[in-house]
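[step 3/7] inverse_fold.run input=structure_tokens len=506
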């Protein structure tokens, strides 16, 4: 009998995957500190996830965590509030004020208890994402899963860590945008910038100007049928994102990139004639009429309705590539639009060209191409959002063989996308000037979520790490070994990624 017991226990220890060194986990973004204590927390003990009483706002995080653990273990996980810290299970609570940096957390995994302490709700959610990265990507229900014990303390380098999705050139529906939000959430990104309007399409319902979507929403690049979000659908996206600690920054691009609006309403054109819908990929040929009063009535209505749908502080006014707007008209226009946005209680973000205008307080200039514009913006008191096209554009091809994407700003292999520091990239722009980082995905060549995945993965985790982890803690040779371990994660999630030869995929 004792031989049988020994055999059975040997068999069990083989089938149980016991990794007890927390420092071996391939976290992306890399946390500030990780200390291992060499033991294992049995995941099936996570049958209860507790949330500190009075902090019910954390229940959403508990539920997202519970769902994932249920998928892995096959057994159900209950979430509930408690007035005192439990001795077993998972416990999510808020740290005392000033104990942790904003969005920061402490994650303590001991033999019986996993404790998440966040500086705020965002910190708790990010800690849960870290915890999820300690779990295997797939498991069959017979396995006993252990989480290596230890402590992680963590907080981000930049408060704003985002990605943009261009839903104007090609339309992406609510389900697809939710998938994009999930991608950001996995890597602790906290902003989704939606490029809602362009020459090829107007994608957000504006009740006071219904033809924007009735006409302007009806097509896309290549002549497909386009689409738009009703205000109800848009609210659903805002909420889905907020549950994952992501704010949506909506963009109405103007005065250029406006053909879809100019096709919908004749009066927005200087000659009073409606334009034809446009399904090509040229840029810089359209402009609102900057000296007509109706233009500003229109913008006031659009911004009013959009501000009402936007709990976050920002509205993006575009402002790029207005090649057919005279310089003085452009400056006059951007000045007026800033006042309209401010009147509706929102702060302004615009592409770096807007630095040519006067710039009111609290404006953020999004650096994409022009250093001179950007430094002029800083001199005028603006903050900078770093989206250098040659480093951070998700629509740039990886190399000359990439079947999607563009290369006007160069090729961006995975190492090139990762290997830069926002605070030292541009002379005259330092960390104090920088709000954060954003990786834009323009969609002239990208038509569906599989193609989105191919352009976004595996570069997105790198941009997330640039935004989160101090530059002194980052280097490509070490990063690529962690990224390599995420390939299986992508596969398990059905993500179609670019298998860069520079990454030693496992
Ligand atoms: C430039 S980046 C644009 C977009 C294009 C993109 C393609 C910027 C502010 N404007 O209109 O989609 O290049 O890479």
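[step 3/7] decode complete -> sequence:
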């Amino acid at each position: 009998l004792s031989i049988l017991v020994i055999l059975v226990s040997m068999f069990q220890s083989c089938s149980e995957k016991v990794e007890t060194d927390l420092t071996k986990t391939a976290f992306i973004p890399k946390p500030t500190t990780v200390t291992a204590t060499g033991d294992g927390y049995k995941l099936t003990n996570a049958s209860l996830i507790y949330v500190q009483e009075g902090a019910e706002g954390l229940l959403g995080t508990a539920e997202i965590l519970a769902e994932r653990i249920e998928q892995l273990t096959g057994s159900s996980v209950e979430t509930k509030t408690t007035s005192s810290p439990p001795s077993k299970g998972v416990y999510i609570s808020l740290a005392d004020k000033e104990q942790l940096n904003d969005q920061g957390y402490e994650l303590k995994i001991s033999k019986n208890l996993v404790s998440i302490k966040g500086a705020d709700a965002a910190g708790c959610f990010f800690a849960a994402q870290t915890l999820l990265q300690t779990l295997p990507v797939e498991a069959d229900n017979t396995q006993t899963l252990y989480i290596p014990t230890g402590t992680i303390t963590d907080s981000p380098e930049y408060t704003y860590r985002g990605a943009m999705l261009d839903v104007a050139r090609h339309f992406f529906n609510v389900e697809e945008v939710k998938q994009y939000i999930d991608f950001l959430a996995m890597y602790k990104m906290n902003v989704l910038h939606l490029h809602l309007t362009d020459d090829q399409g107007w994608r957000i319902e504006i009740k006071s100007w219904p033809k924007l979507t009735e006409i302007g929403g009806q097509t896309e690049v290549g002549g497909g049928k386009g689409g738009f979000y009703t205000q109800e659908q848009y609210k659903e996206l805002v909420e889905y994102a907020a549950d994952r600690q992501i704010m949506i920054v909506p963009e109405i691009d103007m005065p250029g990139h406006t053909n879809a609006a100019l096709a919908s309403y004749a009066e927005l054109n200087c000659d009073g004639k409606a334009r034809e819908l446009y399904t090509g990929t040229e840029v810089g040929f359209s402009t609102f009429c900057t000296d007509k009063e109706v233009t500003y009535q229109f913008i006031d209505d659009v911004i009013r309705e959009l501000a009402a749908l936007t709990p976050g502080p920002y509205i993006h006014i575009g402002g790029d590539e207005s090649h057919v707007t005279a310089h003085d008209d452009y400056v006059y226009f951007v000045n007026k639009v800033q006042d309209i946005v401010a009147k509706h209680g929102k702060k302004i973000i615009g592409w770096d060209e807007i630095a040519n205008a006067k710039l009111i307080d609290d404006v953020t200039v999004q650096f994409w191409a022009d250093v001179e514009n950007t430094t002029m913006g800083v001199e005028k008191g603006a903050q900078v959002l770093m989206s250098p096209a040659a480093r951070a554009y998700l629509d740039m091809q990886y190399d000359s063989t990439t079947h999607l994407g563009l290369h006007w700003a160069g090729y961006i292999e995975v190492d090139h996308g990762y290997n830069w520091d926002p605070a030292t990239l541009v002379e005259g722009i330092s960390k104090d000037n920088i709000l954060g980082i954003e990786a834009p995905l323009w969609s002239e060549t990208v038509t569906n979520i599989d193609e989105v995945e191919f352009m976004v993965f595996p570069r997105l985790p790198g941009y997330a790490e640039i935004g989160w982890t101090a530059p002194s803690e980052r280097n490509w040779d070490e990063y690529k070994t962690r990224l390599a371990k995420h390939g299986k994660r992508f596969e398990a999630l059905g993500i179609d990624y670019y298998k860069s030869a520079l990454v030693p995929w496992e």
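[step 4/7] annotate
The CA atoms of residues 193 and 372 lie 24 Å apart.
The radius of gyration is 24 Å.
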